[in-house]
Design a protein that fits this description.
The protein contains ten helices and 14 strands. By secondary structure, the chain is α/β, with parallel strands linked by helices. The chain has one domain: Acetylglutamate kinase-like (Carbamate kinase, 3-Layer(aba) Sandwich), CATH 3.40.1160.10. The strands form four sheets. It has an eight-stranded mixed sheet with strand order 5-8-2-1-11-13-14-12, with helices on both faces. It has a two-stranded antiparallel ribbon with strand order 3-4. Strands 6-7 form a two-stranded antiparallel ribbon. The longest helix is centred in the N-terminal third of the chain and has 22 residues. The chain is globular and about 45 Å long. It binds adenosine-5'-diphosphate and N-acetyl-L-glutamyl 5-phosphate. The site of N-acetyl-L-glutamyl 5-phosphate (X2W) has 17 residues, from α3, β4 and α4.
Length: about 260
């Protein structure tokens, strides 16, 4: 089963036009490439706004949101409520057979408290679980669309970074490819130029340079820890320019990350 994981950034979701075009591009691409698409969405900017309105200070630790238990109702309301309904709504408009999913439904993923929970509060880490439900949905032609709020096996509600959900689903479903639609054209070098290709062995060094930080650091870390057995490529591309980079081009432009160096076999 050929699966591709698509991660939609929260900044992209704020831009209705770009979201609509990106979902259409995924639709065309999955028909052309005959693969099953699985979508994961973020929603960070919405959480920032909602927390601000409640008088909660927005704080990050190594790119992850510090999520005190008292803020979980607001964070859940934003990510698994409003943002999720919005993405499903646009998918419906584009005539996609979308199924809204919590990552831990059917134990698709298993979630536990983050090892740094003393600093992060109610933040979780995930690992692959049981894919039976997901595979059945894909085989029936549904598009699973995941938000990133999870339950532990004891029912505690935890905030998980959407990039980590995408990476865990990639391993669980043995996906061939993962595409991150971000707000930047790819991983940028010290001159703000997009790095066209990075080999897995170069990521470790990249995360130590200090040049890659905040949200991009979360992505890079999730890729280092990934099992690359089935994965052929990870692409980081600008979701706000989906139309520009697909029309007339064979694929999205951006940073392509592969297990081996370019040209190696
Ligand atoms: N070297 C880098 N190249 C590109 N983006 C970077 C880099 N270092 C830090 N970033 C930041 O990472 C952000 C993308 O990560 P994030 O905000 O989590 O996006 P997303 O919404 O796609 O999850 C960019 O907007 C940029 O501010
Ligand atoms: C723990 C943690 O960092 N959770 C993220 C989940 C949403 C997310 O990842 O959204 P983006 O993809 O838009 O960044 C957060 O609360 O912002």
């Amino acid at each position: 089963m050929k699966v591709v994981i698509y991660k939609l950034s929260g900044k992209l979701i704020k831009d209705s036009d770009a979201l609509n075009k990106t979902l259409r591009a995924i639709q065309m691409r999955s028909e052309r490439g005959q693969h099953y698409p699985v979508i994961v969405h973020g929603g960070g900017p919405y959480v920032d706004t909602w927390c601000d309105a409640w008088g909660y200070q927005v704080e990050k630790y190594q790119g992850l949101r510090v999520s005190p238990d008292v803020q979980i109702p607001v964070i859940t309301g934003a990510l698994a409520g409003y943002v999720h309904m919005r993405v499903i709504g646009v998918a419906k408009d584009v005539k996609i057979a979308a199924i809204g999913m919590t990552p831990t439904t059917g134990e698709s993923l298993v979630c536990e408290l983050h090892p740094d929970s003393d600093k992060l509060g109610s933040v979780g880490v995930v690992r692959p679980g049981n894919t039976r439900l997901l595979i059945s949905l894909l085989q029936q032609g549904y598009w699973p669309i995941f938000h990133s709020m999870c339950h532990t096996i004891n029912g505690q509600c935890l905030n998980v970074n959407a990039d980590d959900i995408a990476a865990a689903l990639c391993v669980a479903l043995q996906a061939e490819e993962m595409v991150f639609f971000s707000d930047v054209p790819g991983v940028l070098d010290t001159h703000q130029q997009t790095i066209p290709h990075i080999a897995l062995s170069e990521l470790e060094q990249l995360q130590l340079t200090g040049h890659v930080h905040s949200g991009m650091l979360v992505k890079i870390k999730s890729l280092i820890n990934l099992n690359w057995e089935s994965l052929q490529r990870v692409l980081i591309t600008n979701g706000h320019q989906t139309e520009k980079t697909t029309i007339g081009a064979s694929d999205f432009e951006g940073t392509s990350i592969t297990e081996l160096s370019e040209g190696a076999s």
